[in-house]
Design a protein that fits this description.
Blueprint (H helix, E strand, L loop, with lengths): L5 E7 L7 E6 L7 E10 L2 H7 L13 E2 L4 E8 L11 E4 L12 E5 L3 E3 L6 H4 L3 H14 L7 E4 L5 H12 L3 E6 L4 H6 L4 E4 L5 H4 L3 E6 L3 H7 L3 E9 L6 H6 L4 H10 L1 H10 L2 E4 L6 H12 L7 E6 L3 H9 L6 E5 L7
Helix pairs in contact: 3-4
Bound molecules: NADP nicotinamide-adenine-dinucleotide phosphate.
């Protein structure tokens, strides 16, 4: 494939300003990187949270910034130290925070952050796997240490995260309870949920008790009330809570920010102590090796990405507006360079 010097990219110049279609140089690759021609990009709430400036206290981004944090595409160039991927490979991945930008024709990405796409997945479906799949895996396995037969409560089962997390928890042998609107109950049941709470009628913390793990995706009062449904020694993992001192240290964010996080998260840590629960705040991280595990789950039909809507590249803002409405059922996908696959 002839690689051009310029490409299209959907990006913003300043926080809180709308993103627009711009022409920018095609990135060059380092020795450990591959250049990927992007076919599709999955969208995530973190994209518009970054654009709003809400994430800059945790991760300072360099502006202008291309939007998008996960992709599926084709390898068109490999660096000198890359031996596991070849030109023509179908790959997917979630780039690290220094190399975001998947709503663009090309991305240069480290070989450790990608995996081969299972043969049974097309690019559109594959592009919805990396960010929500890895987040769910890291919450349930790395931090949750879910064991067969354990009871897991997953908030918002019908969303991008929920639809992945339910399936991964079931693959691990857990008993899964989730929340959903009545119109989405059939979907979450089809993914394996054992118990579904209609959150418009029942409040989860009034009806659940003695759980081994809670995977909180909503934060706020939902997070606070999650402590009381856990057994002593249970685990609470939130992806919508407040970072802790340890988080700041682990991510080399400096003493001042770590202390700030420590003060902000103190009430939650007090809750955790009172209920004798292990509390974790997770910011997911890229991982090609964990993505390979998810690929195996897809190959063995334990995991299937749920796609809600697919937009063309020129409709990227409309796609974000829909996602930000908060009612997506599974993933919202953008055709960056859509080709019909054989
Ligand atoms: N820390 C991290 O590394 C990380 C990684 C990924 C995501 N996140 C965060 O996790 C959150 C969820 O992400 P997502 O991709 O799943 O978002 P999403 O796809 O936009 O979630 C939408 C879904 O949430 C459901 N929902 C909303 N309020 C609910 C409630 N009170 N009870 C039950 N269901 C409810 C909606 O169902 P209805 O339409 O029926 O209301 C809808 O199906 C976001 O805030 C995101 O930023 C964090």
């Amino acid at each position: 494939m002839n690689i051009p010097t310029q490409m299209k990219a959907f990006r913003f110049n300043h926080y809180r300003e709308p993103a627009e279609n711009q022409r920018i140089p095609v990135p060059t690759i380092g020795a450990n990187e591959v250049l990927v021609y992007i076919h599709n990009s999955g969208l995530n709430p973190v994209d518009y949270k970054i654009q709003s400036g809400k994430m800059k206290i945790i991760f300072p981004f360099q502006l202008p910034l291309t939007m998008g944090n996960e992709f599926a595409g084709e390898v068109v160039q490999v660096g000198a130290n890359v031996h596991d991927f070849r030109v023509g490979d179908r790959v997917y991945g979630r780039p690290d925070n220094q190399h975001t930008g998947t709503l663009a024709d090309y991305i240069a990405i480290d070989q450790s952050e990608i995996a081969l796409i299972p043969a049974e997945l097309d690019y559109q479906s594959a592009s919805g796997v990396p960010l929500t799949g890895l987040t769910s895996y890291q919450a349930l396995v790395e931090l949750g240490n879910i064991q067969p037969g354990q009871k897991v409560f997953i908030q918002a089962g019908a969303g991008g995260i929920g639809t992945m997390a339910i399936q991964i928890a079931k693959a691990l042998g857990a008993y899964v309870t989730t929340t959903a609107s009545p119109s989405k109950t059939a979907l979450v049941r089809s993914l394996g949920a054992d118990q579904v709470i209609n959150y418009h009628e029942d409040y989860f913390a009034d009806v659940l008790f003695h759980y081994d793990m809670v995977f909180d995706t909503l934060g706020g009062q939902y997070l606070k009330d999650s402590f009381r449904i856990l057994r002593p020694g249970g685990r609470l993992v939130t992806i919508n809570g407040l970072p802790t001192y340890q988080f700041g240290q682990d991510h080399h964010l400096g003493l001042a920010k770590s202390l700030l996080f420590s003060v902000a998260s103190a009430p939650l840590r007090r809750f955790a102590k009172k209920h004798r629960v292990n509390y974790h705040f997770l910011i997911m991280h890229p991982s090609g090796s964990q993505l390979q595990i998810l690929s195996q789950m897809i190959e063995t039909e334990k995991l299937l990405p749920i796609i809600d809507r697919i937009y063309d590249f020129g409709e990227a803002q409309a796609a974000y507006d829909y996602l930000e409405g908060g009612h997506a059922q599974g993933k919202v996908i953008v055709n960056v360079n859509h080709t019909i696959e054989a």
